[in-house]
Specification:
The complex is a heterotrimer of chains A (304), B (348) and C (412). Chain A is mainly alpha-helical. Chain A has one domain: Orthogonal Bundle (ABC transporter involved in vitamin B12 uptake, BtuC), CATH 1.10.3470. Chain A has twelve helices and two strands. Chain A has helices at 2-13, 16-46, 53-69, 74-100, 105-127, 153-175, 177-187, 189-194, 199-224, 232-246, 251-272, 277-298; strands at 140-143, 149-152. Chain A has a two-stranded antiparallel ribbon. In chain A, β1 (140-143) and β2 form a beta hairpin. Chain B has helices at 4-22, 27-47, 58-76, 79-83, 95-124, 129-148, 168-193, 197-207, 209-214, 219-245, 250-254, 260-271, 278-297, 301-315, 319-327, 340-344; strands at residues 159-160, 247-248. Chain C folds into two domains: 2-153 and 293-370, Response regulator (Rossmann fold, 3-Layer(aba) Sandwich); 157-289 and 383-396, Response regulator (Rossmann fold, 3-Layer(aba) Sandwich). Chain C has 13 helices and 17 strands. Chain C has helices spanning 2-16, 45-64, 88-101, 113-125, 157-172, 190-206, 224-233, 243-256, 269-272, 274-278, 305-315, 326-345, 350-358; strands spanning 30-38, 68-70, 73-83, 106-108, 130-132, 148-150, 181-187, 209-216, 237-241, 263-266, 286-289, 298-299, 303-304, 361-364, 367-370, 383-388, 391-396. The longest helix of chain C has 20 residues, at 45-64. The chains are: A mainly alpha (304), B mainly alpha (348), C alpha/beta (412). Chains A and B meet through α4, α5, α10 and α12 of A and α6, α12 and α14 of B.
Chain lengths: 304, 348, 412
């Protein structure tokens, strides 16, 4: 308890800390947002709740890491992870996801949970359970009083790439034929089918796109943070919190929620201690769920 | 048929009692088998009979484990000091303290777990379908994380309970029969319960909650009671497991969300949801497969488990009982008139 | 029947072995089967694999040297491994399985204190001698276990010497050790919490102030929140312990955030290969180690500590560009203790072997091994190494020091 009070005290004693926490939170939040972004897509378009989301992220990280090990520049790892994970997402769709779309929602939840376990373990067997990261060897920027606020350039690059990817997808969804087909399918799959849209193709594309976005996020994470085969669940939980908070089909909202949750988690870690980080994320999920529930209540509906 | 039934149950009971003597080297595995059976049967109460798929029932397992342990310790020593003993200080328990602590601990474990389920149910049963699953999963993860940060109960160290006083082999039999007795009681109870109006009510909730409510059922109350009963048994099993394990850690043993917490769901799906025997058969099937293959896969077992979940869920969701009901409907007597595809698909 | 069963067991064991043994002169020796539950998956998997490799290397080495001589007969070790998934309850079940179903009479330890804590009651009940190499928590040695022996130093010693060093440095500067501020960030598991207890005790002895006391979560990937506080509180010593992932995350972010603390002490640096992964950022960091290849220990089987390292790297090429972690060395030492005890006992009777283990007094490449009544090794000190220009140099205790401590640590 004393520690909590003194931690809060630090926030007021050194106001610059707030800036530092916010920046740290936004940087990690941008990556959470990217993972959540793909989830919002598959959830909204095909009504599949993908619990293997985080494991796609980590898999992308390992793709980039392996390429760096054979001497390819880390930046090329991002498109490489995007492409490789696109393929893996497509295979996953054909083998499993395709068969759960029409089923009840618990089925997709449990099936993707099984996938998550498989993915994590295969990565463990392939790459070992060491924590891995790519050290770009870039400097750290300092500003604020006494250079207190530090922004490692590698993280900055990562965040910029993540955000440009996110906006790229938004534009793609708005402008391209495929994007329109996806949105049409999301609104009414049957009507879309009647109007000549091959919904199976749309689903396959959406799921592969999600997997590819996750892969790119992972490639960024491995450059700026660390990855380990079993870290997937961390990103899955965050993705669920963000999508539940932002709602489906609201891609800019997902980005905002992602940044917000990143910041809230950093504040939580500062005040209560980093040991509570996971608990805070999960409790945020529950709080968001109840908040949504209250909203629905007013409309005399249940959350389902 | 009518004469065969009591003979069958008596033979089964005899087998349960004799099992640890027939397979003396497998006593611990047999005890673990009971854990699986009980957890699967309790999971099916909400998941199969009521259509509420919880991914967080492990919360009561962990809660029971901690409650039973804390009660036992508190009877003899100061809990904070006991859990804080890193280096020095040995704590001895007399036989009376051990059994009194365990008895009282298990009662508290059951009752408090039920109370927790009742309270949590009030909030979580507002959610339907996947949101209920996500919410319960979240609650279980959060509970584990919070307990692992709670220094008074040992934090991440976990708790080391005293060893069974007396002969080691007798101890193993003791735990086996404790689990078995809980399991048999649960079975008799469920067999009775599933024949009452109460079961009709929770089945109605599964099939169409809106209509059930419109018919005047106080659905929330039914849901809470069902979950509380299920949590009561899970809490007791958790408590016994704590004593059997002697030392347990919060995240890896007590609140093992992605292990036991998911295994019980897989067991039920394997055997067949919403039936009395399905969860039992599924648990036996799962446990045997696991014990036979698990140890020789050296790391690949998790891949196999993931694959098993995916295949069961995607291709084989009716489970063994559902499949049997489809190919041999006459075996199921009065269930014949029920359309098989209705068993598998709980209403949204 | 007996021989048949034994044959079956050894057949099984051979199947479980990964390292296919080249033909050696000990070919026609009998087999002594050891059992081990080891973490191949889950949170301890990195170091579980290190331990397993250490066991395997020693077994091979003993085989090449002519096996274990027990009363005129020669034997080879072979080990049945199971994956305990880093979970205590699983470990305990597997220990029973090894003893009951596989008929194992002698056990090697699992990785981590938590797992050893879960398994020790089982081996104790069956009176199966277990020599373990990876469970260091003191809470293992206050239970009165008779069949548990640990070749390593207990965990409160890991970083306590860093506190002593900090006090010495403060005195040198003409400051009171009482003015030293300590920051602690350890993982929330039995091993690291015992390290924290050791550090707290020593800090209290000097009257130092603990300004930060945080616990790291199981799936740690970002500790910038802690490091920000470190920047504010300006401690003189920063202690981090979180197995391999803790070391990796800490070193990376200490480098990125330019954490300027005069003394930073970390466990598991070698296992996480912080020098290979993060280069300059690792410089100046103190690493506690059970063993170092530069120490002057030696024995007949493995040669000197340096020869052990070279031999091991040859057998396991994946370690070529890393420092061999001490987790490997102590695992090998545990097997060596068994060999020595069997030869002295002159029988395969497990009570006699247990007594022989208890009477162990040997000098090995890993250090001296002599067990206390409680079963922990009391003959070997912990050493503290500092990463200086990418090299691990021993700086404390002064008896073993090959280099001078660079203090205060310069942030890059």
């Amino acid at each position: 308890m004393d520690q909590i009070i003194s931690n809060i005290g630090l926030l007021f004693e050194f106001p610059v800390v707030n800036l530092k926490i916010l920046i740290d939170g936004i940087m990690i939040g941008a990556l959470f947002a990217l993972a959540a972004y793909g989830l919002a897509l598959v959830w909204g378009v095909m009504n599949v709740k993908n619990l293997a989301q985080g494991d796609f992220v980590i898999a992308g990280g390992y793709v980039a890491w392996s390429l760096t090990n054979i001497g390819i520049h880390p930046f090329l790892g991002i498109p490489a992870a995007f492409i490789v994970m696109w393929g893996i997402g497509w295979i996953t769709y054909k083998l499993v996801i395709k068969r759960v779309i029409e089923r009840d929602l618990f089925t997709s939840l449990l099936a993707t949970f099984g996938l998550a376990i498989m993915f994590a373990q295969i990565m463990n067997l392939m790459f070992g359970s060491d924590t891995q990261s790519i050290d770009l060897g870039y400097d750290t920027l300092h500003f604020g009083p006494g250079g207190f606020v530090d922004v490692p350039i590698s993280k900055l690059i990562g965040v910029i790439v993540a955000l440009s990817l996110a906006f790229g997808v938004i534009i793609f969804m708005k402008r391209s034929r495929m994007g329109q087909a996806i949105r049409a399918t999301a609104q009414d799959a049957r009507a879309a089918r009647v109007l000549g849209i091959d919904t199976d193709k749309v689903y396959a594309f959406t799921f592969s796109l999600n997997s590819a976005i996750c892969g790119a996020a992972g490639a960024i994470i491995v450059m700026a943070w660390v990855i380990q085969p079993f870290y997937g669940i961390t990103y899955s939980i965050r993705a669920f919190v963000i999508v539940t908070a932002a709602g489906l089909g609201n891609l800019p909202g997902v980005i905002a929620a992602g940044l917000g949750i990143g910041a809230m988690e950093q504040y939580g870690a500062h005040i209560f201690g980093i040991g509570y980080q996971q608990a805070i994320a999960v409790l945020l999920l529950l709080i968001v769920l109840f908040f949504r529930l209250l909203q629905q209540r007013r409309k005399r509906q249940v959350l389902q | 048929m009518a004469i065969l039934r009591p003979v069958f149950y008596l033979a089964l009971l005899a087998l349960i009692i004799a099992a640890p003597f027939i397979f003396p080297d497998f006593r611990t595995q047999l005890a673990t088998l009971w854990v699986f059976i009980i957890l699967s049967m309790t999971w099916d109460m909400t998941g199969g009979q009521m259509g509420y798929n919880s991914l967080g029932n492990i919360l009561f397992f962990g809660a029971g484990m901690y409650i039973a342990a804390v009660v036992t310790i508190a009877l003899a020593y100061d809990v904070g000091e006991y859990t804080n003993a890193f280096g020095g200080g040995t704590y001895k328990f007399t036989t009376t303290q051990y059994f009194l602590g365990m008895g009282l601990g298990l009662v508290f474990a059951g009752l408090l777990s039920a109370a927790i389920a009742w309270l949590m149910g009030y909030l979580l049963f507002q959610f339907r379908g996947p949101y209920f699953a996500i919410g319960t999963l979240g609650a279980a993860i959060a509970a584990g994380e919070l307990v692992s940060n709670w220094e008074w109960v040992g934090g991440g160290q976990g708790i080391a309970l005293p060893v069974y006083p007396g002969d080691f082999d007798v101890g193993k039999l003791f735990f086996y029969y404790l689990f078995a007795a809980t399991g048999v009681i649960l079975f008799i109870f469920l067999r009775w319960l599933y024949g009452t109006r109460f079961a009709g009510a929770i089945n109605a909730i599964r099939d169409d909650e809106e209509k059930a409510e419109a018919m005047g059922l106080h659905t929330l109350r039914y849901k809470q009671v069902t979950w509380a009963i299920s949590a009561f048994f899970v809490g007791i099993v958790g408590g016994i497991s704590g004593f059997q394990n002697i030392h347990f850690e919060p995240l890896e043993t007590a609140f093992q969300t992605i292990n036991l917490g998911i295994f019980m769901v897989v067991c039920v799906l394997l055997g067949g949801k919403g039936t009395l025997w399905g969860p039992i058969i599924g648990a036996i099937l799962f446990h045997v497969i696991k014990e036979v293959t698990w140890n020789y896969l050296l790391g690949w077992q998790w891949v196999a488990l993931g694959a098993l979940i995916v295949i069961t869920v995607v291709y084989f969701q009716d489970g063994l009982m559902g499949w049997l009901a489809r190919v041999k409907p006459e075996w199921f007597g009065e269930r014949v008139q029920k359309k098989p595809d209705l068993i598998a698909e709980p209403a949204e | 029947m007996g021989t048949l069963k034994k044959f079956g067991i050894s057949l099984l064991a051979t199947g479980a072995l990964f390292a296919s043994a080249p033909a050696a002169m000990a070919e026609d020796c009998d087999t002594i089967t050891l059992g081990a539950a080891i973490s191949l998956t889950g949170k301890y998997a990195t170091n579980g694999v290190h331990a397993k490799n250490g066991y395997e290397y020693a077994i091979q080495k003993i085989k090449d040297a002519g096996g274990v001589k027990v009363a005129d007969k020669c034997y080879n070790f072979s080990t049945i491994y199971y994956d305990d998934e880093s979970k205590g309850d699983r470990g305990a079940t597997l220990a029973e399985r090894l003893i009951n179903q596989d008929g194992v009479q002698y056990m090697l330890g699992p990785y981590s204190s938590g797992l050893t804590k879960a398994i020790a009651p089982v081996t104790e009940q069956y009176k199966i001698p277990m020599v373990e190499a990876e469970g260091a928590s003191r809470s293992l040695f206050n239970k009165g276990y008779k069949y548990l022996f640990a070749v390593l130093s207990t965990s409160e010693q890991y970083l306590a010497s860093a506190i002593t060093l900090a006090a010495e440095m403060a005195e040198k500067e003409g400051k009171d050790p009482k003015s030293v501020k300590v920051a602690i960030a350890v993982e929330n598991d039995p091993f690291s919490l015992d390290i924290r207890a050791g550090v707290q005790e020593d800090a209290k002895k000097y009257g130092m102030k603990i300004v930060l006391d945080e616990k790291l979560p199981r799936d740690l990937s970002d500790m910038s929140a802690i490091l920000t506080k470190v920047k504010l509180l300006k401690p003189d010593v920063l202690i981090v312990s979180g197995h391999s992932k803790g070391a990796a995350t800490a070193v990376r972010q200490i480098g990125e955030q330019n954490i300027d603390v005069p003394m930073i002490a970390v466990t598991h640096c070698e296992a996480a290969d912080v020098v290979g992964n993060f280069g300059k950022a690792a410089n100046g960091i103190l690493c506690s180690t059970q063993w170092a290849e530069t120490l002057s220990y030696e024995d007949d089987l493995f040669g000197t500590a340096a020869e052990y390292e070279a031999g091991f790297k040859e057998a396991f090429p994946e370690y070529t560009n890393k420092t061999v972690p001490y987790q490997v060395a102590q695992a090998s030492a545990a097997v060596y203790v068994f060999k020595d005890a069997f030869e002295r006992a002159g029988t395969l009777d497990k009570e006699m072997v247990r007594d022989a283990i208890s009477a162990t007094d040997m000098k090995t490449f890993y250090g001296d091994i002599r067990f206390s009544e409680a079963g922990n090794n009391i003959a070997k000190p912990m050493v503290l190494r500092q990463i200086q220009d990418g090299k691990y140099n021993v700086v404390a205790p002064s008896k073993f020091a090959s280099h001078k401590l660079e203090w205060p640590r310069e942030a890059e």
